[in-house]
Amino acid sequence: MSGESEAPVTETQVESAFEELDVDSPVVGIVMGSKSDMPVMEKAGKELEERGIRYELRVMSAHRDPEMVADYAKNARMRGLRVIIAGAGLAAALPGVVAAHTDLPVIGVPLTSATSVGGGLDALLAIAQMPPGVPVACMGINGARNAAVLAAKILDC
């Protein structure tokens, strides 16, 4: 052991080293208000998978479990997510609630259902008409695949 001391490692150097590590954590979160939304929202997952983009798929209701949605959105960046795709029908509150609790880009997918108005027009309008300061990108009705394409473009993949 020599008498010379090594220079201390800075926080920036540590952050740079971690950025280069390839971890298996998802970078896109796909959330939906109900299990019945799964057949449409799985199309986003399939598109991301084909592009080699890691994602997670969760079911959570903005109306039935708002605390879970808020926690998910607040902790998304810390867990490595960089974009969130949120699908919802009817009142379609999920994308807006997610956007209210994160600074990550949120892509809303309006979903149709047997009880939706105008084949999903209710959900489309709910997602598209967000108040200033709470932006949500809005896809076409049942446009989960396009949401994944947009997420890939945001990620530059």
Description:
Strands 2-1-3-4-5 form a five-stranded parallel sheet, sandwiched between helices. Helix 2 links the parallel strand 1 (28-32) and strand 2. 38% of the residues lie in helices and 16% in strands. The chain is of the alpha/beta class and 157 residues long. The N and C termini lie far apart (47 Å). The protein has one domain: Rossmann fold (3-Layer(aba) Sandwich).
Keywords:
Rossmann fold; five-stranded parallel sheet; alpha/beta; 157 residues; single chain; 38% helix
Number of strand segments: 5
- Proportion of beta-strand residues: 15-25%
Overall pLDDT level: 90
| CATH architecture verdict | 3-Layer(aba) Sandwich
For the record, the count of structural domains works out to: 1
CATH class: Alpha Beta
Broad shape: globular
Distance between the termini: 47 Å
* Uncertain ranges: none
The succession of helices and strands, N to C, reads HEHEHEHEHEH
Kindly report the spatial arrangement of strands forming the biggest sheet.
2-1-3-4-5
Structural class: alpha/beta
| Rg, Å, rounded | 19 Å
Percent helix range? 25-40%
Give the secondary structure arrangement, pairings included:
Layout: H1 11-20, E1 28-32, H2 38-50, E2 55-59, H3 66-75, E3 83-89, H4 94-100, E4 106-111, H5 121-128, E5 137-138, H6 144-155
Parallel strand pairs: 1-2, 1-3, 3-4, 4-5
Summarize the structure.
The chain is of the alpha/beta class and 157 residues long.
